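quick one before i forget lol
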Amino acid sequence: MLHIISQQMQTCTKCKDITHHTKNYGGGGSRGVYLLLSRVDSDINSKGVIRSEVTNWLRQCWRHVSKDTDAKFLDEFFISSALLCRTHVVGNAREDREASWGEVKNCRDRVGMEIYGVDPHIIIASGKQACSSLLGRSSKLPRITGTPESLFHIEIPGETVPVRYPVIYMPDVFTAIANGDYDDPNGKIQFISKTLTYVYDICKYLKGEDQ
């Protein structure tokens, strides 16, 4: 199913004024976590450095803030983006603008099909566009805390009935990379680390229940 979705996206023409990128972030491991990024980052994707760059940075961030980490946990993430196309600033192909709500809506069906194909224990929404894509609205989004207070649920159409998935909201990964506020107790990196710890605890509990 995921392979078919990837093929379909290569020929998508819903957003005619933006440039398609040709690589999916992909997944690995048990795919227990579906991480939805808000955008395709120009610095990462123009160099062809995709999934490993994101997971390596998350691992570095998590270790910097928390001593209780599992190096292999992030390898279980399926990483995708709310928008699988580059949204260039007009006249400047090296700078990306924020995707419009209309562009995010154009990709919502693909996001839903991916989630259903991955069937994760939990979804992480990284940034405003990712959260908007999952909720189907661009306003009145949850508050980011990195704790259970940021948790909400969505329903994805299934073969017979909708499937319910928990989602936790965290800051945009690429904005946090640019800020680099590792030592700020109220910074984006702290919130991302809290989120990773919380998601890790959930997945660890669920694995214990399965055994």
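fyi The first strand starts at residue 19 and ends at 20.
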